[in-house]
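3.2 Worked example (two chains)
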Amino acid sequence: MDLTELNTLKSLLSRLHVRPADKLGQNFLVDRVALDKIVAAAALEPSNLVVEIGAGFGTLTEALCKGSGQVVAIEKDRRLIKPLRFVLKKFQNVEIVDGDFLKLDISSLLTTHYPLFTSFKVVANIPYYLTGRILENLLVLKKKPELIVLLVQKEVGERVCAAPGEMSVLAVAVQAYSRPEMVSLVTRESFFPSPEVDSVILKLVPYQNFVVEADEKSFFRLVKVGFSHRRKTLENNLAAGLHLPKTLAAALVKSAGLSPTVRPQELSLADWARLLRVWERGRSA
């Protein structure tokens, strides 16, 4: 059964009396070329343990089973569990988990059930509205995935991979924990039902440790203050967010080697780390 063939998928949906749920962000992939690109980006090997978030009807799951040693397929929609088991019945290397990824202790699950695997990859077509939360959950794990490959909204992929000049809190957060790359465009016509936007295959290589030379909580606290009003200058945001006189906020920006008119989206990770060091030195003086 080739579920990347639209008529086959529609027939299955009809037989099962299942309609894609908008509230769960269900857009099923019906593009064999895109599917092959996802699998290629994951660089699967027989020794790999793979976690899939939102297995759907098993279109991607089947390809993951063929290329890896073990797949843990997580599906929140209980309507899909039975057909998922039917589609994947010929595979012995898959565990179907009936549950919400965001509520699972994924580290404990993998350590308990698959202790022989020393690392794991995450490959998934995820709901757009959960992208930020899923990325956060994955990137702050104590034992991080060795590779993450996700289908995400094109705009989100561009934001994640942005360079200084177009940075955001999301870009800073993701790039502090991983090296992101957009692999390929996947148009809206590649899904059923078709979403209103195009997607990209996003590949992230997580760092095993926080890459910025700074305390994580202090770093992100400062970043959030700095981005509190994107259209304002960094100086103005720091003055308001840190409750500083404008003269002290201006001195802080200058001491970090930044322009007095710089805006938060222009800063690199190194700039934020330097700004934090200057701020902490000033507070302890």
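3.2.1 Second chain
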Amino acid sequence: MFSRLQSDIQCILERDPAARTGWEVLTCYPGLHALVLHRRAHWCWQNGFKWAGRFISQLSRWLTGIEIHPGAKIGERVFFDHAMGVVIGETAEIGDGCTIYQGVTLGGTSLYKGTKRHPTLGRDVVVSAGAKVLGGFLVGDGAKIGSNAVVIKPVPAGATAVGIPARIIPSKAGESADVTTTSPKFSAYGITLEDDPLGQAMKGLIDNASSQEHQIALLWQAIEKLSESSKAHRDCVPDDAALQETFEADKINQLMGK
């Protein structure tokens, strides 16, 4: 029990730069308190003491602001950062090394008892502030859920889900979408170096339009040079021909925040 508590404290010290000492974490971090109380509640739930498990869960909610159903399964080195308003349902499963921020809901969409109604998080998943993960599906190892995303379908390992409803940014070479080096590191709040997939699509369309205008301008310039050598062909270049590029791709990208 003490070794597991020590592991929980150490993982908080590694992931939260505001944490200064183990004693501070032990006495002042409600996420750690919620975990400790949940283990007691889960033991009661698994051993048939349902009311006792629910009572401990309710007590934990009053003390920490984190609501974890005693039936939920939580692995080791899980960090609830701030975590006020977190709600975790009965059949939810959280893998080792996960990080969950404030306002997160691991909820269910089914009303049938005895079924898998809540999501399963793999190892080292980051669920950012305000995200809602709804349904009995799997969020793969190393995946990241963006702030305020609403996830209603499985997320592949290493991918990032953003938006409402969530869209998937695929992983690269089996790594998390934000990993650009061979040594992955913890990403607070699931912040990535990748853009929203719709933003990437818009940027591609803008760049393509800019490239097409450039090609058209080059063609008109070539036609103008040819017409200068022949009096009969000068009229083939209209007065309003786009001999110069006017499409401001960089300015549009700046307006989009790209």
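3.3 Remarks
Helices lie at 2-15, 22-28, 30-46, 50-64, 197-228, 249-255.
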